[in-house]
Amino acid sequence: MLSILLGLFCCRVAGQLVVALFQVPWLPPMEEWYSGAIAYPHLLACQFVIMIVFGKVCRDLFKANGYFSERHTWLGKPMMRFGLLYLFTMVLRYTIRMALYGAERWAGGCIPIFFHCVLAAFVVVLGWYHTWRQKCTEVPRIPTCQQSRSTPLSSIFAWGAVTAAIVAWVGYQIAPSTYGTVCLASDKRYAVRIEKKKAVSADGKLTFVEIYRPARTPSLPHAPVVVMVNRSRSPLAILRTNIKARSFAERGYLVIATSDNTRSGRSSK
To answer: For residues 248 and 37, what is the distance between their CA atoms, to the nearest angstrom?
Structure first.
């Protein structure tokens, strides 16, 4: 099972690399393969690291020799919990995407989500293997009256933090659509592509530019343009600019967001 999942992930990496190098027409275009959150060279390096580590796992299990073939009592349950949480998050991501963007149904932009599910399944299967090995080698314990079944306080805090993080992430995903519906009075929504670039201004200063554009819009060169200048680099100001820019891009605008490193109230030379 692990080898099949690794083979699927390798096919995904190979397919995207072929599109990036040769732009073949019989495979989906480049923007369908990844979300654009990080540059493709960095993404490719991470993918190679994942393939090397997962290949090591499969090699150890096939030869029944090596670190991952041995029983690790501390590894099984945490891996299964992380993998199931990872898988749940990707299913939730797919549900939100399909609910918000009608043009994406039912498979639009789903290549990254599908292969995140493949990675999550790999972690779950590997965690199950170590959990199963642990159960097979454990010596049954005689129950005593002193054993407590109460949930540790640390586990309650950990799951509370995970739940809060998921709720915050869901809020971040739906915030642009909510803002656009309330403030822009428009229900027309596209999925958004974000491109991060660095530009040199007229005075020689380095300026960070983010381009937000609607996906699957052939009339993009004729789309109205919105320019947003963020005069603060505080996390709250960046988040506010991101939500507003995404809400405009969801409704067919091309948004160019720049960051001004000068403090508010001071004019740049």
So the answer is: 18
